[in-house]
Amino acid sequence: MVNFDEILEKLDAKAQDSFEKCEDKSPMQQAVLEMQKLMDKVVVDALKLYDEQKKN
Length: 56
Hints:
Layout: H1 4-21, H2 27-55
Helix pairs in contact: 1-2
């Protein structure tokens, strides 16, 4: 079974790591980080829903 929460954690960690490596830690970069995390969550939630639908 796929662990979607684990996938989301890894994606969030990757986004955070990219932000930490970025020299420009402006509010705009912080907003980009938050947007990336939101987009990752939407994709993972969609995959989770698809997986549940496929089972039924």
